[in-house]
Amino acid sequence: MKIDILTLFPHMFDGFLTESIIKRAIEKKLVEINLIDFRKYSTDPHHKVDDYQYGGGSGMVLMIEPIYNCLKEIKTDESKVILMTPQGVTYNQKMAYDLSKEKHLIIICGHYEGFDERIRGLVDMEVSIGDYVLTGGEIPSMIITDSVTRLIDNVIREDSHVFDSFKDNLLDFPVYTKPVDFMGMKVPEVLLSGHHENINKWKQAEALKRTKIRRPDLLERVDKDV
Ligand code: 6GU
Fold first, then answer.
1. Which of 4, 65, 86, 116 is an active site residue?
2. Which of 8, 10, 60, 81 could hold 112 in an S-S bridge, CB 3.0 to 4.6 Å?
3. pLDDT digits 0-9 by tens, 114-162
């Protein structure tokens, strides 16, 4: 899988790409992640990428040309182009699974007040990560990249994501480790029983119970989305 991220602020990604699971996935060549500063695709003598909006209004607007020029160079028939914007469809685990099957993602990070409406015509999908406003699409693009990368084969052990929260629109069941008794707070007996069928039943029941209490909205969607 190759992920190209178009951003004016590549250094925002420094820690993200050089630590932990993402770093290992890159080293093992399970994913290739490129940061492309699309300022270099600006044909303007001052490498301008944004300008005032027609009709008046506050804030600078990203211009289409640098992004168009960049896509022209990097896009192939196998690319899926994603625009990060709070106006996009809200991201979820099902989308992460679908994207993890793609060969090449191109993620465009918006910044400033907005982008020229015609940029929308260059992309396959527009994605938001939730109903709040961030300063730019960089953190959202890291969220897409992180959630997709961990689902690529051999990045993490498969059984680590078989039971992910949201996989079946259910939250995770509780887990415990040593000690068996911490100040009177005990690990449930069934987990110590060695009876795998009972343990699995317990996990299922606890996941359902927890979801009913914390996220009843997810249960209305069980088996519909995933
Ligand atoms: Cl994708 N971008 C920005 N700027 N804010 C957001 C977002 C994206 N998703 C939620 N808020």
1. 86
2. 60
3. 999 999 999 999 999 999 999 999 999 999 999 999 999 999 998 778 7
Cβ–Cβ under 8 Å, residues 31 and 173 = no
Q: What gap in Å lies between CA 77 and CA 58, rounded to an integer? A: 37
DSSP string over 143-156: HHHHHHHTTSTTTS
- Under DSSP, the state recorded for 110 is P
Please tell me if the CB atom of residue 136 comes closer than 6 angstroms to any atom of ligand 1: yes
Specify the pairing of strand 60-62 against strand 114-115: parallel
Lay out the sheet containing 50-52: strands in order across. Answer: 50-52, 60-62, 114-115
Task: State the DSSP string of 10-55.
Answer: GGGGHHHHSSHHHHHHHHTTS-EEEEE-GGGG--STT---EEEPTT
The answer on pLDDT for 204 being more than 50 is yes
Number of the ligand 1 atom closest to the C-alpha atom of 85 = 1
| DSSP reduced 3-state for 221 | coil
In angstroms, how far apart are the furthest CA atoms of the chain? 72
Instruction: For tokens 């959202």, name the residue.
Output: 140
* Active site annotation includes 164: yes
Catalytic, 124? Answer no
91-125 pLDDT tens trace: 999 999 999 999 999 999 987 779 999 999 999 99
H-type alpha helices, the chain: 14-17, 20-27, 64-74, 93-99, 138-149, 158-162, 189-192, 196-214, 216-219
